[in-house]
Amino acid sequence: MPDQQVMEETVAEHSVRPSDLPAPPKDAIRIVQACSRPGVDSRDLAHLVANDPVLTAELLRISNSAYFGLVSQVKSVSRAVTVLGNRALRNLMLCLSMRDALRSDAIPGFNIDVYWEDALRRAVSARMLAELASLDPEECFTAGLLQDFGLLVLLFINPEQVEHWDRLAASTPGDRRDIEIDLFHSTHDEVGLTLANSWDLPQDLAFAMGYHHDGPPEETDSQTRMLCKVATCADWMASVYRCADKRVAIQQVRALLAENFDASPEHSDYLLQQVAESVAEAATAMGMRVGEQQTFDQVLREANLRLAEENLSYQELTWRLEQALGERDRYAAELNRELELAREVQKSLLPDAGTKLAGITGLNLSAKAVSGDFFDYYRVGENKMAFCLADVSGKGMNAALLMAKTASLFRCLGKGIHDPGKLLAMINREIFETSVRGMFVTMLAGVVDQASGEVILASAGHLPAVHMGCAALIAEYPAEAPPLGISPDSIFPNNTFELQGGCLYLYTDGLLEARMEDGSRLERDGLIRVLKEHASILLDDRPLAITDSVVGTDRVLEDDLTLMIIEGTK
Amino acid sequence: MTFPVEDRQGFSVVLLNGEIDLNNSPDARKVILNNLKKKHHVMVDLSDVAYIDSSGVASLVEGFQYARTNDLEFGLVGVSEAAMSVLRLARLDQVFTIYASLDERLEDGG
């Protein structure tokens, strides 16, 4: 049994408070708790049950049902208590009390029977796994029946979300929790654990309710741990009959049963077949209503796993495959055309030979069709040039789009704002207002006076700009403010310095993290070494010479790589 | 891969480990955001992070932004030297609330 302290420590403050929960059915819970007391007298238990005529009738019906198959006819409560034993009585009472915890019309617009039919599938699945898990079948049945009760509670607390039931029902167990978080800001397993504690349910069943997705805490005893595994498998077995993607569900059941119980795929399929056949019988025993059940064969056909039995000819299969491949190629060609257009638009945002200015040069190599890096420069007066180099977080199309936006802002706003720090602050506010998914931009922006060699430089979280003399490092200018798009009020200080006939190198992490021939990354010290080695090469040829020396000429890049050099007057 | 989460003293502590790059930063993002969407206060433990690239940093930034707009607490605890050097270089140490450990946050009282 899980230890009480572990139990308390593992219950976090979740978004569903105990006061939100439906009230526990007190009489049944009292019997459940009495059953768990060591040394309790069976006459006292019988007396507690007999006090409630509805529970008495239910107990006798279940005790005599074909599904639970007791050896002899049971005609009295005291006989039922004796034959069943405390633990089985406890489990039955739990099932009945949970079934009756919410009236059938408790959630407006929702037919609770649909939920219980699904719960019954989990219960019969878990009961079938009991033998493989060396656990008590009735205990497993109870865990299976109760494990997703939290979902019913979530719908009870948030009846406006009932309209999403079909989406919840059609999803696989893993995906369903993601949908729950979006709809309810909580998940059924968390709520199940909260409810189990609030109602003071037995700890092993509470753990099965709370830990059939993420697994129980490390300190949990092996029997309870196994019960959680059974609940996990039962969840997927039931979903085979409910979710939209049956192929995925069947494959997951096979994988889980192989991993946990060494079951063969044939054995898994046999158990799945039994689920459909047992649900109606279990429903009769539990006094629940279920609709007509789909057979496993029908499920298999739906999952399209029996292609060979569909009497498709080899020629027809080949034809279908050719059609599918043709369609794939058409989509790929269309996508490539789109990418090519995107690449052209991106290239138009970078300076080209037509806009070449003396004393400044740059190179951009992208790891994918489109890049998240860019650089730019333009005249802002007779002797002055504005320049920038930036790197958008992430790769691919979303980074490329943010790159295009940032490049446009630099061009538009930079025409009127010649103070790099103020320009970055302005671009930062614009990007912040529309930034999504945590994307941000690291950027260096500056103005160089080519007559005096004075540079004013500001950095938004970008790697340090490197100021090199003829053959030695003069200074580095690390960022003093965070990247663009994270905080609206960031201030970007300016650094002012003289180029003194040296060069200023701006680069992105694609250069620092590029892997050299020996597999190691270039890193900062390697960069300084490479810059020294290439210091005498003509400015316009230098970026390509530097990148070739680092990543080779075949250029298999892990990340976009951009390098820009600003030369002081000699 | 899945990153473990521990409930401690009213916080969901997300334990990131290993190299957080383009391959597994979507998993990091998912676990951080799912806990925030559940209205949990989140602390991300970076003590076992050997390397983090900009996509990993973006997962942290997204968590920070979601928490800020939804009035939740979000912080980093036990940041490894490898992760800290990346955060310092990008001046993100000015952005994130960083604690040496969860205990320090608890003593600090927010």
Strand order of the largest sheet of chain B: 1-2-3-4-5
Q: In oligomeric terms, what are we looking at?
A: heterodimer
The strands making up the biggest β-sheet of chain A line up spatially as: 1-10-9-6-7
Give the amount of beta strand of chain A, in percent.
Answer: 5-15%
CATH superfamily of chain B: STAS domain
Structural class of chain B: alpha/beta
Q: What's the main sheet of chain B like?
A: 5 strands, mixed
Shape of chain A: elongated
Report the mean per-residue pLDDT of chain B as an integer. Answer: 92
InterPro entries (chain B): Anti-sigma_ant, STAS_dom, STAS_dom_sf
GO molecular function (chain B): anti-sigma factor antagonist activity
Protein name (chain B): Anti-sigma factor antagonist
Domain STAS (chain B): 1-109
Outline the structure in words.
The complex is a heterodimer of chains A (570) and B (110). By secondary structure, chain A is α+β, with helices and mostly antiparallel strands. Chain A is built from 23 helices and ten strands. In chain A, strand 6 and strand 7 (473-477) form a beta hairpin. Chain B has a single domain, classed as STAS domain (Transcription Regulator spoIIAA, 2-Layer Sandwich), CATH 3.30.750.24. Helix content of chain B is 41%, strand content 29%. In chain B, strands 1-2-3-4-5 form a five-stranded mixed beta sheet. In chain B, strand 3, helix 2 and strand 4 (74-77) form a beta-alpha-beta unit. In chain B, helix 1 (25-37) runs parallel beside helix 2. The longest helix of chain B is centred in the middle third of the chain and has 16 residues, at 54-69. Chain B is globular, with a radius of gyration of 12 Å. The relative contact order of chain B is 0.18. Classes of the chains: A alpha+beta (570), B alpha/beta (110). The interface between A and B is medium-sized, with 39 and 29 residues.
